[in-house]
Amino acid sequence: MKRGVTLKKEQVKSGKRRFSKPFIFTTIILQIILSAVICLMLVLYSPFFNTIKKFAVSSLMETGAHQYIARIFLSQAQINAITGEDSGKPLATQDTSDVKTQNAGDSDIDEYAVQGDQFSGYVLEVKDSQRVKVAMTQYAGKVGEFTSKMAESENAIAAINGGGFQGGANWSDSAQNPTNFVMHDGNVVWQDKNWPDDEKVNVIAIDNHGILVVGDHSINELKSLNVMEAVTLPNSSETDFKPLIINGEPQFKKGDSTSRAPRTAIAQKKDGTILLIALDGRQVGQFGATYYELQQLILDKLSTPDNPVETATILDGGGSTTMYYNGKVINHPSAAFGERTVATAFYVEQ
Fold this sequence. Notes:
21 strands; five-stranded antiparallel β-sheet; 8 helices; about 350 residues; alpha+beta
């Protein structure tokens, strides 16, 4: 018995220590975080990772939820240089006079699938554009909601995810606050406390005649245009969230914004028909679409000579991309656990 006790004392004296499980777990987590930071710094600042750098930064800047990650480490000038964006490039001025909303009272919705080399998705054609409205999470300022839940709350036949969003002070939910402002039924239903009524931002809006209004506008301008519904994305002069098509003319060149991701878009044909578009990506066998590919899909496949697409613009994409129709989500959201909470959605009344 004494010999056994002596051995245990010698083991202690020899310097062998047993670490607790919480200590080991914390150490592993810290090592993972440190490794991730080192990898991120190498990607952002090493000249040997230019291709990966462009992909990573472009991907971050093409979602309304995670741009802050790029902005922590890089200035806007550095972001523009990496992504190839010309921050001073002016937008075309939208002329809506060619759009004739002539389908009032038409309850038809056409649904069909679309396919590309690296993406698949769905399009909904809504004949009566005045049926398209904006929904906002009923818990704004606290948490976001699924697109499908917002649609169900509005008794909607269809919906897609809408504008940008950001987290609040407690960061408990990244989608709790819509960006800038939201309009519904002609009223401002959400406005950042420091957002002036006369400051312009990239909007996706629908006026009282059902005409899709895009580009950089202030709240005051939207009110003068009799806009009923509106969401926002980061300013199009600072990011590549600019409209895809204005006055029937494409706004992206082939080399612009080459990263692939799930995409959500809204468009309008000359007869007023609204197109809701959701393209899947970030999955096995399909990485998604570039903005140029999305634009060309609309021009080549969804537009016709007798009824061309006059206006098209980007909504928030990536993990947010969701399309709801006839009581279910019909696309395949790429977020880790399926559908992702968002702050706003465009929905179609029954």
